[in-house]
Write a structure and sequence with these properties.
Layout lengths: L2 H46 L7 E2 H4 L2 H8 L3 H17 L7 E2 L1 E8 L5 E9 L16 H5 L2 H12 L6 E4 L1 H15 L4 H6 L4 E7 L16 E8 L4 E8 L3 H24 L5 E2 L8 E2 L2 H12 L1 E5 L2 E8 L1 H25 L67 H4 L1
Antiparallel strand pairs: 1-2, 3-4, 3-6, 4-5, 6-7, 7-8, 8-12, 9-10, 11-12
Helix pairs in contact: 1-6, 1-9, 3-4, 9-10
Length: 413
């Protein structure tokens, strides 16, 4: 074969490989776009139809075999969970007739590593005559997040379920209810202070068929989130259960592309990148929370094994602060809605009269500072006034002279 012939076939092979790679990239980009568009349309349909993200009968969700399949890895946790659920159903048997869209189990660990303070949070569909919850129209999510993403989050929150039902031991239920009440007022400091003893959680969506796009309805059976949240670190594992290894391969490919697209959007649209600064030696971060989410997403592990897909992420103090601020802003939005829709509800103190709490700080160093300590107290909004310079005493005024209220040293400061 001559040199000219080798060059020709080499060029054809190179062009073929480049064309194939470009075609594959275009196909995957088009598929991700369609999946995201269909998911948004599905959520809008759920809102218009007063449906939830997917419900199963409560009797199935509370079944011992089902609970064991989710929590059976920790026998002690499963035993306590089954005990509190059985006690709650015995006291309120009508709950067996309802439906469950999500179940979250939280607990802490004792010195011996065994679970304690187990609390079960059960969420279901709203009754037809109840007002659905959502983000406040002037809240953080509307201001800081793209309108399409805000709409998606608002819809997802609206279709999650109705009032939360708690199952727990008598000595645990009271303090936990107070903690939840504080969160829904937008006061996260009680939660932050309690995180010196990390909270372990497991969130289960037993039938998420309505929240996943049509392309994945037949391929994802359940979604489970588990991990822990402390003051300085945290961990979250998201597990997708699929009916077969073939479904797992298909869902894994789509979820991996969605993850890449989300990272790109955070970098391009919300400036989650470092940019050079001519006045500083180190590059600056344009949007700290977007940058932190991108870095944690890239450092996460995303793997598939048989019919299970797992996304695992461990993070530090700054990402923890981002998570806590999301919780805070959700609570402030919920409180603002309560004040707007229920005029008879009066703000409690000065902390609830404004949108942000008096203790709120902007940036990545709140509520846990760079020294690892909780930042408490309101931030200084203005520098302290300077001490007046020493001057010669002024001559005494006549006894009948009056000093106007808007003059004198106080007004000069």
């Amino acid at each position: 074969m001559s040199k000219r012939s080798k060059f020709f076939w080499g060029s054809v092979l190179t062009v073929g490989l480049l064309t194939g790679a470009a075609g594959t990239l275009a196909f995957r980009a088009h598929r991700v776009w369609n999946v995201a568009k269909d998911m948004r349309a599905q959520l809008r349909y759920l809102t218009a139809g007063d449906e939830t993200i997917g419900e199963v009968p409560a009797s199935d969700a509370f079944d011992a075999d089902y609970l064991k399949s989710i929590f059976g890895e920790d026998p002690e946790l499963f035993h306590q969970l089954r005990t509190v659920v059985a006690k709650g159903l015995e006291e309120t048997p009508v709950l067996n007739l309802g439906e469950v869209s999500a179940m979250m189990v939280t607990h802490r660990k004792g010195d011996d590593g065994q679970p304690r303070d187990v609390v079960v949070h059960v969420m279901g569909g709203f009754p037809p005559d109840a007002r659905k919850i959502g983000f406040h129209r002037d809240g953080y999510m509307k201001k800081m997040v793209d309108s399409h993403l805000w709409d998606a989050g608002n819809i997802a929150l609206g279709v999650l379920g109705r009032d939360m039902v708690l199952f727990a031991q008598e000595e645990t239920i009271g303090p936990h209810q107070e903690l939840i009440a504080a969160i829904f007022r937008g006061d996260i400091m009680p939660l932050v202070e309690s995180l010196d003893d990390p909270i372990y959680f497991t969130l289960v969506f037993p039938d998420p068929q309505h929240i996943v796009p049509p392309q994945l309805k037949r391929h994802i059976q359940a979604v489970i989130m588990k991990g822990y949240l402390g003051q300085k670190d945290g961990k979250t594992d998201v597990i997708f259960l699929t009916p077969s290894a073939r479904s797992a391969r298909y869902a894994f490919s789509i979820l991996q592309d969605l993850k890449t697209a989300a990272e790109l959007a955070l970098q391009v649209k919300w400036n989650g990148v470092k940019t050079p600064d001519r006045w500083r030696a180190e590059p600056t971060v344009q949007c700290w929370w977007a940058y932190e989410i991108v870095q944690n997403s890239k450092a996460s592990t995303f793997e598939r094994e048989a019919g299970i897909i797992r996304l695992s992420s461990s993070y530090g103090r700054v990402m923890n602060n981002a998570v806590l601020k999301i919780i805070e802003r959700f609570g402030r939005d919920a409180r603002q809605m309560q004040l707007a829709y229920a005029p008879q509800t009066e703000p409690v103190g000065d902390d609830e009269k404004a949108y942000w709490s008096l203790t709120h700080h902007w940036g990545p160093d709140w509520p846990v500072g760079s020294d690892g300590m909780i930042v408490a107290g309101a931030p200084a909004t203005e520098p302290a006034p300077a001490e007046p310079a020493a001057v010669e005493p002024a001559p005494a005024e006549p006894a009948d002279a009056e000093v106007p209220a808007d003059e004198g040293p106080a007004a000069a400061q």
